Amino acid sequence: MFRSILIIFGRLLKSSKKNNSRVFWPFILLLTLTVLSFNEGQFQKNQNSAENNLSSILYITPGGGDESQGPNFFVPPNTPTGSGNGSLDKDSFTNSEPINERPKLLWGVDPSYRAPIGGGGSGNDVGSSGKDNTEEKYKIPDQSEWISDNSIWDSVQETDSSVLEQKEDKAPDKLKVDIDFPYQYDSNQNPTLLIPNTGRLREKRPYTNVEYDQTAAHMHHASDFDIKLTLDFNMAKYERLDRAGRLDYVNQKLPQETVINYQNAIGQSMCPLFNIPGKTTSVPGFAGKHKIGTELSIQQSPNGINMLSIILEDGTHISSFSITNDQLKRIINNDFWVLRDRNL
Amino acid sequence: MIKKHFNLLRYKELLQLEESGKISFLDLELVTYKASISEQIHYNRKKDYFLLIHEYLSRVITPYKFRSKFLQMRREDSAKATIILENFQKLEVFTLAKDLEKFSDLISQISTLCLEFGEVWDGTMERMSESEFYSLVNNHYLQLQEAFPFGNFRNQAYEYLVDRSFKILMFTIGLNILLILLNIYIINIQ
User: Fold this and answer.
1) Which residue in B62, B64, B111 is closest to A327 by CB distance?
2) Which residues of A196-215 are buried (b: 16+ CB within 10 A; e: fewer)?
3) pLDDT in tens, B104-140
4) pTM score, whole prediction
5) Which of A298, A313, A326, A339 to mutate to test the interface with B (most CBs of B within 10 A)?
6) Interface pTM (ipTM) of the complex?
7) For a disulfide at A71, which of A140, A174, A309, B13, Cβ 3.0-4.6 Å?
8) Chain A contacts in chain B segment 58-117 (CB below 8 A)
């Protein structure tokens, strides 16, 4: 359009110069005025669009959760199940040590499994009365009695793998994403991650519970943990919603894997990791207008970013987000008092 | 403006103490040294912060845009500070404003409000209302204005509006005159 206007002006100028010289200079003036105004408008428009593009990059990033990750972590069978309302029975964890490693073998799902040779039977096989019988049963035979028929071993292997396949199919506790912590399902069949507590209350409560719903209600801090949200996730709309509305919105717009990845990232920000040299510590603090006792977990990454996590004394994780050094200074100066303007 | 130099010698000592495990990374003196760099960077662009807060309070920008822009500016400053903290040559000549503390404290309070605005918890802590947020930001802004009297942004905003309106008007009038002349020219040719 701008080009066509210029062409028309050019033709007009050419003809006006030939026919009437009095019209020539006012034409030049008008042309300059119009071109200047037009360019100004274009510049403003470009600036605004650049700003919009930037904000879209900052708050809505493309791509969803990584669904290509296979199942790879299982809740140990000894881990207690949910009490029905999403909360966890803390005392029941004292007797079971959740495994913080990925099982390498398929039979890792069954800790009661014992090799029949050498070490005796499992707890189920060995009763108090049948101990001698079992020892006799699994006694290593003399070398003269050894059988060199390989087909026996083939049949044993077949039996074992079929049993394991059955176990894998029946395993109800598989998650679709790779996580680093033990977990437990809440009443909505969403996982609550159990993060080992490194703070002063670790004797009293060994785990911090990072609940699915509480995490889903804090997607506005997801960018701090490099969690990618879907393109149609409107953060401005999400922020205006109350807690229940936020949960509905997350269920509509985000796959469960995204929230679980976010839970996992929060968990990592609360415990020292060997592969990422960061400084992690847990300190007693306060939260809310009424100064409720809390535990604050602070992690400083090698690139100078501080992650603050707020945990209630009963082990419920409230929120995690990044803070700058001057905010950290202010928190230390205020005796680790956070959410000061909130009615917690 | 009175300035003071960054005490690099003491900062190095504190870093060594931290490395040897004698002090924690949460040691107040060490954190204060680290924070002073980002505070100075905030201070250097205080006009931008004032303008952004003023735009929000004048309802020129939405609350969401204000919060996200404010936090983004803070993150940018913090990233710059991290780079400077690793460069001892720059730290050696780095100067700090004397009234830095007051400014950074108020700005930090607004930043904390932005961060904590969306915090909710299981029914007992609902999201902060927009009016409450507005009122708290306004309180801090008044304190900022009192401590750091700055240009009247109300006039600046109006000036900007008038300037833009004038340019649009000029463009429209210019285009109309040209169209009239074009029409006259076509009539003359015919």
Assistant:
1) B111
2) bbbbebeeebbbbbbbbbbb
3) 989 999 999 998 888 887 757 777 888 999 999 999 9
4) 0.61
5) A326
6) 0.78
7) A174
8) 62, 64-65, 68, 72, 74-75, 77-78, 81-82, 85, 104-105, 108-109, 111-113, 115-117
